[in-house]
Amino acid sequence: xxxxxxxxxxxxxxxxxxxxxxxxxxxxxxxxxxxxxxxxxxxxxxxxxxxxxxxxxxxxxxxxxxxxxxxxxxxxxxxxxxxxxxxxxxxxxxxxxxxxxxxxxxxxxxxxxxxxxxxxxxxxxxxxxxxxxxxxxxxxxxxxxxxxxxxxxxxxxxxxxxxxxxxxxxxxxxxxxxxxxxxxxxxxxxxxxxxxxxxxxxxxxxxxxxxxxxxxxxxxxxxxxxxxxxxxxxxxxxxxxxxxxxxxxxxxxxxxxxxxxxxxxxxxxxxxxxxxxxxxxxxxxxxxxx
Length: 290
Prior knowledge:
This protein is α/β, with parallel strands linked by helices. Helices cover 32% and strands 21% of the residues.
């Protein structure tokens, strides 16, 4: 199998390239060539820029059994990529997001076809909806949508589990501006990558909500502290005392978004890495990269 990865040198893309290589899939990366230049020396790279619409490197006659779009955030990203590929892509697998849904429902938000960067909480999900619609319109039963929730794991370049791993590594009082009972649902980036690989191998269409087990914030903080060998005291405090919301902390109105059912994704090949393993691996990576 030959696969083209649109973006593959940062957090999610990096894990997907690793998983495809482990599965013996012949992979090519299309990216700007600005990050992760030392990664994957044996993997061919095509240089382009989705923000400027430079897809010249994809204009050759090479055909791929599958395209994995990790870096498509705007409708023009996917539209231009599909135009550049023409009929040379067998399956188009798009990394979407659970932000496409309205609250805790399974109803998608209205699409935003004209969203532009920087995307916000109001435009990110609707822009991804528009991307999904374009891909489904063009590829139909050759389209696959993977909709992760909050992703965690080594090489995470955003605040999330990494914040709490760092915070709980310090013995003592840990202030939580919210409820210890708040649910939080993370998915290990490596599990998402394995799901992507299996979907490609099985040539499977459809949409898959990728999420891990739902735990409480108290459980997550305790798990992070155990990974660090730390002893902490969790104390609930008034959210008004914090000028900005801490990573993963959500108001009660958003709790249903942290209890989504990943059963179809698990049936299709999504593994479940224990949170304790993810936390320990994030801590080890964070300390090694400090």
